[in-house]
Amino acid sequence: MKTPKILSLLAAVLLLTLLFTSVFVLDETKQAIVTQFGKPVGKPLTQPGLHFKIPIVQKVQFFDKRYLEWDGDANQVPTKDKKFIFVDSYARWQITNPLQFFIRLRDERSGQSRLDDILDGETRNAIASHDLLDIVRSTNREPEVSDEVMEDLENLDKITVGRDKIEALILKRANERTSDLGVQILDFRFKRMNYVDEVRNRVYDRMISERNRIADQFRSEGQGEARKIQGNKERDLAQITSQATREAEVIRGKADAQATSIYASAYNRNAQARELYSFLRSMETLEKSFDDKTSVILSTDSELYKYLKRAN
Hints:
The protein is α+β, with helices and mostly antiparallel strands. It contains 8 helices and 9 strands. The strands form 3 sheets. Strands 6, 7, 8 and 9 form a 4-stranded antiparallel sheet that branches. The protein is rod-shaped, with a radius of gyration of 54 Å.
């Protein structure tokens, strides 16, 4: 009695297992193909929902339906004008035919590796076929020069191709090579470009030298302006001092004349006053003219001698 029940239970479990393994869910971000003994069977599955396969015999290979990222390695590449630069690029790609992609590449890792070969190769070819100026510039617009420091920018050579067209050319040639792989490259861009270390160091040295030259020029102009200001200051100071001295002498002369006039009017009233005034003026002259070490020879007709004789 138990044996038939056990067999029935096992059969039910086996049936459920087969049923569950024959059904799979396809997410909206995925696409898939069904393989039987490693070979694809039927058309690719791109619509999300429930799908069926033969259990055990068939397997499902899932592939991403979304845009995928490709990030290249920075490579040293010579330009047409023999300048070595590091080029770092990136791209976006998509699996458009999962069946063809599975036949040619099997999985996304292989697809990334194949894109490395294609995009890096086309990038090298494009860089080597164009001058550096075409690679780093997109248009021939006039540079905005704000001062004489950037005056060298006014003489930039004109480009004939430009970076945008080079990127479009790489994208076109890469898609031609991936047309039988079941993928499409949607976009390609240069992420970063720079000189190699040796050339970059020389460029930096030249930039430093140029900035030092400009700094020396500004410093020289500043020193010249400082000397000009200093000269103007000394000239103005001498002019002001001379004017002040002249005015002081004029004022002093007027004061002396006024004082003399006052003295004269005060001492010119009678003979005694005039004699007193003459005596005081003579004494002031003696006080200012002589000291202990002064020797003087006076005539007997001198006014000073008259007072000295009278004192003796």
